[in-house]
Amino acid sequence: MVPAYPNRLFATFLMMVLFLLLILSVPVWILFMAVRAGVWLISRVLRPDLEKFVSGSDSIFAMYDGTRAVTNITTCFITNGHVSCERVQEMFTERVLRAEWKCGDLYFKRLKQSWTTFLGYPFWRTDVDFDVKNHIRYYDYGGEISLSKECSEEDLTRAFVGLSQVPWKKDQSPWEFLVIPGYKSLGYSGPRTAILLRLDHVLCDAYSIILFLRTLFHSPMKCTTGNLNERSLSLAKRSGLVFKVVYDLADLCLNELDSSQLRSPVISCVKGVDCSISEAVPVDLIKEIKNYYKVSYAAVIYSVIHGAIQATLEKHKELVPKNLATFIILPKPDRPDKFVNHLYGTCSKLSCNSNCPQARLQEIYQKLMKAHSSSTPFGIDLLGSQIQYSPVFLRRFFSHKLHLVPFGVSVGCTIFPALTGTDFFDGCEVTDLFFGLGPSLNIGIFVAVWGTNKQQKFVFIVDKTMFRSDKIIQSFGWNVQHQVQLLAKGLNQTGQEPGISEDHVEVTVL
């Protein structure tokens, strides 16, 4: 592990070094901006088919043009009844493709776009031969992720995780809506349909997926939103953050990263990935734990995740790190009503190896409060926004060198609030919902939390190079329920019945 450095003088020294590096890098970024402007002018003459640059938060994901799956988001829905692929195609054409903003521009224009590079920079390009049948279709993958005639839970899980590694077709918008009729699950005898919605993160974030599904199915898909991680600052306050940002980034480098063995030794997932999906956890129970221990909703979620990691590693005789540097994806304030990526993130070293789940919960809560008051997310967002000015080959080069850095982030997490009501896809009730994001860069474990009907599901997607056996990976989800029960024991032992708060659920969004 990288030791903590309580010496603030050292942090101050590192802050000065970082600040100096930022100043010295200004001419480089000015040069990149000039080159980028030149590329734009040339593209107007030589490549009129190219539209805008891939910019902002989108540029973070514009590293590989679909030929290599790095940042796929896969969402799974289970419905009672039969969802017709042809009917979904019809609804998509009528409701989604024709949806417009007030300015007349298409709301979901990106669903007809892919991106490509020109002179080293990524551009959006519209698919002139767009055919909805290429994107909304019955599941048709073969090989290792093929499905049996009657798709079982095991088949569905294999397809769900396998799709995260499947590359996209060239010059085609990177998304697909795959319908699996005749899905069979334990405890239900009627007809069911499984749906896998997969898209490249360069198109949008998870909240945009909800907007898309609301428009497609005219279903409310209500979710509770919160303000724990949403901060809107005035221009004056933002300008005053300049020095604090540098100091907080220095503090992050010194105290919030680790050299855990849970960091992936490679960035390509050469052995593939595997996943473990938990049983549904009631939101009301999470709220009871939150209220009883006087912590945040997010703290309970992260405590359960890290407790499940500890329990799994202990069971399989693996070394359990005391803390794990965790990358936390947050929603940006002032989200635009668009189909976009609107997010940033921070890192915090959260307790993992603990003899007391309640103590771990309190420690994690304190660390999240520290992260909430830190300016690090703004600093990371500021640095990330500069990526759009650099050519793609430089982004790839530095991402490939991350594994050489002796410390970094071990676990990535995103928490999305469970849907609060019952939703229907073309008259068929949605009974289950979960999503996942494959590991990328050096982050070997990525945990995504979402659900429906006031229940959360935890999905662990793990790089297979991390562990000697797939059984270890498949155990993560199994331990989630046990960790929730350990935290809930305190409620039962006191004989009290804490009321279920109607307070908002603090969330972190992908």
From TrEMBL:
<keyword id="KW-0812">Transmembrane</keyword>
<feature type="domain" description="O-acyltransferase WSD1-like N-terminal">
    <location>
        <begin position="89"/>
        <end position="209"/>
    </location>
</feature>
<dbReference type="GO" id="GO:0004144">
    <property type="term" value="F:diacylglycerol O-acyltransferase activity"/>
</dbReference>
<dbReference type="GO" id="GO:0045017">
    <property type="term" value="P:glycerolipid biosynthetic process"/>
</dbReference>
<feature type="transmembrane region" description="Helical">
    <location>
        <begin position="402"/>
        <end position="421"/>
    </location>
</feature>
<feature type="transmembrane region" description="Helical">
    <location>
        <begin position="433"/>
        <end position="451"/>
    </location>
</feature>
<dbReference type="Pfam" id="PF03007">
    <property type="entry name" value="WS_DGAT_cat"/>
</dbReference>
<feature type="transmembrane region" description="Helical">
    <location>
        <begin position="12"/>
        <end position="35"/>
    </location>
</feature>
<keyword id="KW-1133">Transmembrane helix</keyword>
<keyword id="KW-0472">Membrane</keyword>
<dbReference type="InterPro" id="IPR004255">
    <property type="entry name" value="O-acyltransferase_WSD1_N"/>
</dbReference>
<protein>
    <recommendedName>
        <fullName>O-acyltransferase WSD1-like N-terminal domain-containing protein</fullName>
    </recommendedName>
</protein>
